Amino acid sequence: MQRLVEGLRLGDRYVLQERIASGGMADVWRGLDDVLKRDVAVKIMRADPDNEEIFAERFRDEALHSAALLHSNITTVFDYGEDDHLTYLVMELVPGLPLSAIIREHGAMQPEAVRSILGQAALALGTAHEAGVVHRDVKPANILVREDGLVKLTDFGIARAIDSIGHTRVGEMLGTPNYISPEQAIGQQATGASDLYALGVVAHEMLTGKRPFDRGTPIATAMCHVNEPPPPLGDEVPEDLRDVVASLLEKDPADRPENALAVAVLLGVAPAELADLDVDLASGVPSGGYLVLPVTPLTPSTPLEAVTPADRAPADIPTMAAAPEELLD
């Protein structure tokens, strides 16, 4: 097996330049596509002799699922390959930061920034769910924010096609405990509604700067999602935004919005062709008007606190190539 070092060439095409993220299942490197002469992100599966077969199957699934999802708010997959026992996935390199880094740096975010990020992530999930793919690990580390405010949902590493058998073993719980839905926590199958619950946890964290469910251990945290209500949001959060977050965090999947697109419309971030639709928050069914929010870039000197409804980009983000720093944690 080849050693992962700067300058290593994979598939006689992709030259590794520097490692930019690492997790339990894979490493992500900045690379150069020597054929098309462009920078890319190369995700390389980390060898695990005890679970190599099941991890490899999940990795191939990620390639297939992600390549089928073409949307401006989803990272684009360019290629998949195997080279001397190394399995790798080639993706677009996103210039920006993971949302986890933004929250860690800035703490609680302004409501309008939250609307923009949350709405764009909902649009991405809507595309995935319509294609029959449940993400199953929605969390800040898997939401990349470009410096111009565009959001990219990434890392479908434990995604599963809704109609497929999948590779989950009986009784196995996949996902991150801080963002796992109540139904996943008790071993039930994840659905699109489970992704919406995780998105609600992310929204709550953006608005407060703190994870709403965190009890120190994975099991205690997971069961907290099942048994405890989220901490209340303050009056500084607009009532309509509080209502959206509350609907996403309903314990019963049937009580959450009907689909991700309904959430995007509620937040005012939706495709123009939906201009004649409304959404009734109680049912999640389209039923009223909405405002399409533009995503405009901020200057490097614009602080996060200064974001207003006229400046919808979510943060003052330095120009850098980034990938989730908590990949599949």
TrEMBL record:
GO molecular function: protein serine/threonine kinase activity
Key words of the record: ATP-binding, Kinase, Nucleotide-binding, Serine/threonine-protein kinase, Transferase
Entry keyword annotation includes rRNA-binding: no
Keyword match Transferase: yes
Organism: Nocardioides cavernae
InterPro entries: Kinase-like_dom_sf, Prot_kinase_dom, Ser/Thr_kinase_AS
Occurrences of domain Protein kinase (ranges): 14-267
Matching Pfam families: Pkinase (PF00069)
EC number: 2.7.11.1
The protein's name in its UniProt record: non-specific serine/threonine protein kinase
Domain of life of the organism encoding this protein: Bacteria
First-level EC class: transferase
